[in-house]
Amino acid sequence: MMRASFLIAFALALAPAAIPAAAEQYDVVIVNGQVMDPESGLDAIRNIGIRNATIEIVSDAPLRGRETIDATGLVVAPGFINLHWHGTDPASNVYEAMDGVTATFELEIGVADVDKWYDERKGGMPIHYGAAIGHAPVRMAVMDDPGEFLPAGDAARKPASDEQIRAIKGRVEQGLRRGAVGVGFGLAYTPAASHWEILEMFRLAARYDAAGFVHIRGASSAGSADREQGLLEAISHAAVSGAGVHVAHMNSSGQNAALRMLGIVEQARAHGVDVTTEAYPYTAGATRIESFLFDAWMDKPESEYQKLQWAATGERLTRETFLRYRKEGGLVLIHANTEENVRAVIANPLTMIASDGFDVKPRQGHPRSAGTYSRVLGRYVREQQTLSLMQALRKMTLMPAQRLERRVPQMRNKGRIKPGADADIVVFDPQRIADRATYEAPDVFSEGMRYVLVAGTPVVREGQPVAGTAPGRPVRAPILPSP
Ligand SMILES: [Zn+2]
Q: How far is the CA of 285 from the centre of ligand 1 (A)?
């Protein structure tokens, strides 16, 4: 009996190899594209056969499928993985898809209720999605903070009591047991949280093999003194606790100190600390004007306010309008960085690309939500040749997958083009890829993505979004029973 079933299994295992590849029928085949895979270094004309949302074959032999995508003259690469996103409306994820993103994550701030966040998105997302349990939102819940997304009251400005720290820890641990992808730390938005409180959260992250995703402190304005301090704090928590740490938007948190800070990241890594970082390719940042970040802006010289642009109207601020809008609350753009800094940060081999995007609306946003990936590929790869196409793709695919895969095993099948990998694939024109969104009009799709496949299903076809399709699946760490 055992022997017979063994033989049947053996015969079945042999069967696919006995049939010539050309005779197989795949769900989708992508033919004649320049296939680029940063993990293997493959950079050659190949055909790809996809079945059941999985890449089954990468071959130079002809393949047949129910749908054939002709990628002649186009690059075929793993779908981009965005480790930094804050959107709530799935329609905004279509802008990401048009920019090549096939999986997007709310990690830096994270969420207060992991189950609720995943349940709300079920069956409605064009691309894959995942979230961290967030220290800042949990702190807001425990301390009854009235802020909408970021702390605006006690969670920003008051130290937590021992009892409150216990409550925050309990909710963060619950989030980890419910499969949160990591632990988010908006440290710049919770300046009153003690080092002990933060270290306690990192200890929890370490126990669950999760990394901390951190908006570091000390970077509240263009000229603020000691940016390195916030980075050193984050690295200390990682070194002491044993958890990994991922430092958000090195471009905006680093400004003029960014290259020095990347040197610190490199040195810490050389000494065994698991620290990684990311950047978006714009000289302006964006955040809520009512957040703690702008407490430091109450007494600036008049000329400094010119760096601020009110997103809703496009106007540059004065001290008077700054004070007025701060009472109202809303999104403000901060024009503080230099093109030279941004170019160097994007080119640095340690930097992943991540957009820090959020819901896309006319006149109310930042072009990074819609344009980050195409801007790197168009402006920095093609036009300025600051980095090679393969280097850029590695920052958008393999590196973010590797950042998450220790805690989230399903990430081992993303960010790669190879048999067995998930069929999350971009097909784009390297001569035409470009961002089109601007500070004044942030709601414009990028150009040059011809096809974007999510779990084998096109969400972009012939350069246009496919309406009403939602193949996105949850990306989540294994769920554990309650302790
Ligand atoms: Zn941030």
A: 9
C-alpha span between 388 and 259 (Å, rounded):
20
DSSP state of 307: G
Distance 473 CA to ligand 1 centre (A): 25
CA–centroid distance, 278 to ligand 1, in Å, is: 11
248 Cα to the center of ligand 1, angstroms: 6
Neighbouring-strand partners of residue 47? 59
Give the mean model confidence (pLDDT) for residues 253-272: 96
Q: Measure 188 CA to ligand 1 centroid, in angstroms.
A: 8
Q: Report whether pLDDT(366) > 90.
A: yes
Within 10 Å of residue 41's Cβ, how many Cβ atoms?
10
- Residue in the structure block whose two tokens are 């695919």: 397
Between the CA of 101 and the centroid of ligand 1 the distance, in Å, is 19
Rounded-to-integer distance, Cα 411 and Cα 483, Å:
26
Q: Is 10 exposed, middle or buried (0-12, 13-18, 19+ CB in 10 A)?
A: exposed
Q: Give the mean model confidence (pLDDT) for residues 167-182.
A: 98
Q: Per the structure block, which two tokens stand in for 87?
A: 């959107």
The closest of 86, 85, 89 to 101, measured between CA atoms, is 85
CA–centroid distance, 190 to ligand 1, in Å, is 12
Reported as a single tens digit per residue, the pLDDT across 11-28 is 444 444 444 545 689 999
**Contact in structure between 437 and 446 (CB atoms under 8 Å):** yes
The DSSP secondary-structure symbol of 382 reads I
Distance 151 CA to ligand 1 centre (A): 13
List phi, psi (to 5°) of 277: -155, 175
67 CA to centre of ligand 1 in angstroms: 41
| Contact predicate 180/480, CB 8 Å | no
How far does CA 323 lie from the centroid of its chain? 32
Ligand 1 center from residue 224 Cα (angstroms): 16
